[in-house]
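tool_call: predict_structure(chain=1)
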Amino acid sequence: MSIESPALELTNLTKRFGDTIAVNDLTLLLEPGAFLGLLGRNGAGKSTTLRMVTGLLQPTSGTIRVLGRDLAEEPIAVKRQIGVMPEDMALLEYLTGPQYLRFVGRMYGLEDAVADARREELFAKLDLAPAPRGLVADYSYGMKKKLSLCAALIHGPRIVFLDEPFEGIDAVTSRTIREILLSLQGHGVTLVLTSHIMEVVEKLCPLIAILDEGRLLGFGPLDELRVREGAENLEGLFVSLVGGAQDGTLSWL
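tool_result:
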C-alpha cells in the first residue's frame, strides 16, 4: 500500500445491537501521523468504534479502511500493522509478563531475541519490574495496564488504538506514557486515544472527535473546534457539544 494512503478511513460506519444503535453513520478520515482524541460520555460508542476498527466486532454497515486496506477484505494484513490496547486489556493471565510478551511477539513474527530486547526496553521505560515467576493474574491493575501497552507496541505498529490507557496509572508513569506516544507520533505512527481525562487529551491530541449516542458531533483540530463553539478549553468544548451538564447541588445539603 502507498504510504500516501489515509491511516484510517471510516465511511458510514454503523453498529446496531438489536434496536439499539451504538454507532450511527460515522464518517471520518485520519492522515498518517495524526493523533486523535476520541471523546464521549459513557455509552457514546467509543469502545464499540474501536472494536470495529480493530476487527474485534463486525459492523452492521459501512466500510473501514486501515492504511489503505479494506478491513473486511484483508483482516490479517491490517492486524499485522496495528497495535491495540483495549480497555479490558484481554491479557493471558496464567503466563508471566515476559512469557506473554514473547507470545505476542511470535504472533507478529518477531524473533524471540528481538521481542525480549524490546520487552526489556519497554519494562525499563515504564518502570515495570514484576517478580520473575509472577503470573499476570497476580499483577496490580496498574501493572496490567502497563503490560497491555507493551503488547500494543512491541511489534512496531503503524497505527495504535488505545482505550483508556491512563486509567489506574500513576502520575510519573502517565508522563512517561505521554512521552512514548508523542515519540511514536514523531516517527509517523498514527494514534487514536480514548480517555475521560480531559487534561491529558488536551495536552496530547491536536485532533478531536466527539461522539454522543453513536453520532459524531464534532471532528477537527481542537483549536478550530474551540473557536467555533466559543469554548475556553476542551472540557468547555465537550460540554457545549454534548450538553447535559447538571447542577451538582444535593437537596439534603
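agent: The CA atoms of residues 244 and 250 lie 17 Å apart. Proceeding to next step.
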